[in-house]
Design a protein that fits this description.
The chain is an alpha+beta fold and 155 residues long. Helix content is 30%, strand content 30%. The protein contains 5 helices and 9 strands. A 7-stranded mixed beta sheet has the order 2-1-5-4-3-8-9. The chain is globular and about 40 Å long. The mean pLDDT is 96.
C-alpha cells in the first residue's frame, strides 16, 4: 500500500520510548512530522534525529509535533533519546503496523544482500489529519530544513 499527499493519514497506536501509547488520531489540531527511519544509533539515523532535535523549537513554533518511527523496541528508543537528548517521541513499530500502513516496509538491498526494512520516509500531516507532503527515499542532508520550510510556507 502506498500513501500519497491528499489522503487521510492512516491512524495507528504505538508505544513511545516513555512507555506511553501514542495514537496519531490524538494529535488532531497539530501539524505532525511523521518520519520513518531504519535503526537507532546508526550514522544516518543519528544525524537525522539530531537535525530534528536542533530544529525542534522551530517546529513547535509552527504547531508541529515530530514523531520518529522505527522497528526498534521502545527500550532502545529510550537509550537513543537519552544519549542524544532528543526532545520528541520515538515510536516502536516491531510488528510493522505503521510501516505497512504508510508503505515504507520495503525490500532493500545492501552489499548484495536483500532484506526487509524501513525505507527512510517523511510525511507531513496537517491539523485535520490529512497527508499534505510525502518524501520517500529521503537523503538525510538538508531534509529537516526542507520539512521545516514546507510547513512554514504551506501550513
Amino acid at each position: 500500500m502506498t500513501v500519497e499527499a491528499g489522503v487521510q493519514a492512516p491512524d495507528f497506536t504505538l508505544e513511545a520510548q516513555t512507555g506511553e501509547k501514542v495514537a496519531l488520531s490524538d494529535l488532531k489540531g497539530k501539524n505532525v512530522v511523521l518520519y520513518f527511519y531504519p535503526k537507532d544509533m546508526t550514522p544516518g539515523c543519528t544525524t537525522e534525529a539530531c537535525d530534528f532535535r536542533d530544529n525542534h523549537e522551530q517546529f513547535e513554533e509552527l504547531n508541529a509535533v515530530i514523531l520518529g518511527v522505527s522497528t526498534d523496541p521502545a527500550g532502545r528508543h529510550k537509550k537513543f533519546t537519552e544519549k542524544y537528548g532528543l526532545p520528541f517521541l520515538l515510536l516502536a513499530d516491531p510488528e510493522h503496523q505503521a510501516a505497512n500502513a504508510y508503505g515504507v516496509w520495503k525490500l532493500k538491498k545492501n552489499f548484495g544482500k536483500e532484506y526487509m526494512g524501513i525505507e527512510r520516509s517523511t510525511f507531513i500531516i496537517d491539523q485535520q489529519g490529512m497527508i499534505v507532503k510525502v518524501w520517500r527515499k529521503v537523503q538525510v542532508k538538508g531534509h529537516v530544513e526542507e520539512a521545516l520550510s514546507f510547513i512554514r510556507e504551506n501550513l
